[in-house]
Amino acid sequence: MLNRVYAPAQAWAPYISLSDSAAEIRTGATQAPYILRFAEDQSNAKPVPTFWRSKPKLPAAMPQRPLEGLKITLDPGHLGGDWAMLEERWFRVGNSAPVVEGDMVLKVALILAPQLRSLGATVSFTRSKPGPVTSKRPADLQKEALLALRDKRDPVSDEALAKEANRLFYRASEIRRRAQLVNHVLKPDLVLCLHFNAEAWGNEKEPTLVEPNHLHFLITGAWNREELDYEDQRLEMLVKLLNRSFHEELRVTDALAASLAKATGLPPYLYQGTNAIRVNDNPYVWARNLLANRLFTCPVVYIEPYVMNSHMAFSRIQAGDYDGRRNFGGVMRRSIYREYADGVVAGLVDYYGDR
Predict the structure, then answer these.
(1) Is 4 inside a domain boundary?
(2) How confident is the model at residue 20 (pLDDT cuts 50, 70, 90)?
(3) What is the pTM assigned to this prediction?
(4) Which domain holds residue 258?
(5) Cα separation of 198 and 186, whole Å?
């Protein structure tokens, strides 16, 4: 699993020494290594501590309620609202309505939740309105921002300090607070991280619309050596590896990929760099090391449909939410928000409905 999913190209090798009886894991620079001893057989192995349940451990489903007993947390990405410009998930073309990812994924979540509940699921949210969950604000993170700039060997200026404090606010403090909620309060069987995608749009004052429009999914994996040099990331990788959430993540993601590909008609996205890897033959599914999917210790799926600044997606976003179907490029479509939600529901029913 280290080589195939979590730390390819033996990125783990400087930090973990394996023998037949144990794994010796590097901890702090001046601390003794942690020894993880392997059980001689399953009968004397300590149980894996998890709060989540895989499909075989859920109660039986009924035809009318295929998601019976399943606990799902919806994680609408980003912040939206008054925070959208600060987190740089906002753009506007001419006099059009602004495209705000945080507000869009919240709209999807609010459409999705009652559908899931009607099918038997228990649904919770990491956020149910625009804005942050964390109590921290950029002004509270000046010290951490200074340390981060020094760690990256970046020049320190007032502008750089303010930008780094903003980034730590919405990318680190916010996501860590959501992880605390997921792992210690909500304790779901599955987290769905709802996002829209985007291609580079150039000048923020005159953003560019592009042709590519695609779909992909991310599950936890693909740490590199530089990331594993951080003690917290080593621990988070090992928690995910040892609690075996990967297998459930992959099965759920395969089902969601099939249903959303059918609902949207979108082709798969192809990563060109080394920050994401394939873990099976599904062209829509990639493993990548993101803060949220490694901090949420249960199975978690990142959903990334639609390129917001593609011509097609942009026109559909401008149409807003609506009943029925409308013509886009010669195809009658539901609103982009309902199409997204329908695809998610269909995939979850396909996977969990045959218990």
Answers:
(1) no
(2) very high
(3) 0.95
(4) 48-133+180-352
(5) 30
